[in-house]
């Protein structure tokens, strides 16, 4: 009886400890604050929301527990939005001054700045992690997010155009590979805290945090990642020494698929569709929503691409760079997945694309 009581007590203690650990596990979060393996969002341009009285803050949402886009009932500037819920973990870690949690925030357009840095990569993102797991948020929103001490907000400059991003939950054993990819990114880090317990395994992020890196940067590198729940991802990272269009010169040929690319097609700064190599790259020109609603790529600051419909390999990639002559001189990258629900969601957004001349 005593032995049974001891086993029962130990089991309850274990379950209680597991519950505490599970409650504090860092993860991408949905709008209810529940952990998810990944999510992707598409913030809609301001012009699409006149009928609802919104101001460029509505968005589409898809995560690892769902199968298609849904229009969120939340606005992107609220703490109940998917980004607000996920970043709440950053603010809690900052407030606790924990020596077991690290974060790194980067953006070529930093909050409250009127200019954009071309010295660093054309990259925007945030990482938060401990020695169990964390998340990597990759997005296209300039001047976002505010530093942790300021709390959550969404910048007015991110309202006019479309924006997108992806959040992926990773176990800690994936962070060494992420560390190497970020070296190639050369990100403009404007807020970070990486305690000493991580420095032995993660070499580059602490140096990027203090802007003291002297490591030799490869021209490009391809890495494979696995999310916390086993979803496979492929990550392309290029430095500013690889002077070419990342889509046509590398990604399409490596993935062995024709690509439909949606990036910010600013007038007189776009690259035309490219059919000069075995695998072609076509510019998406318009994004369709429900009914007759659509918007032009000129109004879309999002950066993503998918395999051409009917391709054997159906990839979706979300990242940092535009198809522009100037972007060949910038570092950045894309994270790609063959998840069919992500592919179907983005494929349904394509209204039409530009063929090659």
Automatic annotation (TrEMBL):
One of its GO terms (molecular function) is deoxyribonuclease II activity. GO terms for cellular component: extracellular region; lysosome. It catalyses: Endonucleolytic cleavage to nucleoside 3'-phosphates and 3'-phosphooligonucleotide end-products. CDD domains: PLDc_DNaseII_beta_2 (cd09192). InterPro entries: DNase_II. One of its GO terms (biological process) is apoptotic DNA fragmentation. It is found in: Lysosome. Residues 1-23 form the signal peptide. Its EC number is 3.1.22.1. Keywords: Endonuclease, Glycoprotein, Hydrolase, Lysosome, Nuclease, Signal. Hydrolyzes DNA under acidic conditions. Does not require divalent cations for activity. Participates in the degradation of nuclear DNA during lens cell differentiation. Belongs to the DNase II family. This is Deoxyribonuclease-2-beta. It comes from Loxodonta africana (African elephant).
């Amino acid at each position: 009886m005593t032995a049974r009581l001891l086993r029962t007590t130990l089991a309850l203690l274990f379950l209680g400890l597991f519950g505490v650990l599970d409650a504090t596990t860092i993860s991408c979060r949905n709008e209810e604050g529940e952990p998810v393996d990944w999510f992707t969002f598409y913030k809609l341009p301001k012009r699409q929301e006149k009928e609802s009285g919104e101001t460029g803050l509505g968005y589409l949402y898809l995560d690892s527990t769902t199968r298609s886009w849904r229009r969120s009932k939340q606005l992107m500037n609220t703490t109940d939005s998917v980004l607000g819920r996920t970043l709440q973990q950053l603010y809690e870690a900052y407030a606790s001054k924990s020596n077991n949690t690290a974060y790194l925030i980067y953006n070529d357009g930093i909050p409250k700045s009127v200019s954009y840095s071309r010295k660093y990569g054309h990259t925007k993102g945030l990482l938060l992690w401990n020695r169990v797991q964390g998340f990597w948020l990759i997005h296209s929103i300039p001047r976002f997010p505010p530093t942790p001490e300021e709390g959550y907000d969404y910048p007015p400059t991110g309202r006019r155009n479309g924006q997108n991003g992806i959040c992926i939950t990773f176990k800690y054993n994936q962070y060494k590979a992420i560390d190497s990819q970020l070296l190639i990114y050369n990100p403009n880090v404007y807020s970070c805290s990486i305690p000493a317990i991580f420095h032995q395994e993660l070499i580059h992020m602490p140096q990027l945090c203090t802007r003291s890196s002297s490591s030799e940067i490869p021209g490009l590198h391809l890495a494979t990642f696995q999310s916390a729940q086993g979803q496979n991802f492929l990550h392309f990272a290029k430095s500013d020494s690889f002077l070419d269009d990342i889509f046509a010169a590398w990604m399409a040929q490596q993935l062995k698929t024709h690509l439909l690319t949606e990036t910010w097609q600013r007038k007189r700064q776009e690259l035309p569709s490219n059919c000069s190599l075995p695998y072609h790259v076509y510019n998406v020109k318009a994004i369709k929503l429900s009914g007759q609603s659509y918007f032009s790529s000129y109004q879309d600051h999002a950066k993503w691409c998918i395999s051409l419909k009917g391709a054997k390999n159906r990839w979706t990639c979300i990242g940092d760079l535009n198809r522009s002559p100037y972007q060949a001189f910038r570092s950045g990258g894309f994270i790609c997945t063959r998840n069919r629900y992500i592919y179907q969601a983005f494929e349904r957004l394509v209204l039409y694309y530009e063929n090659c001349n």
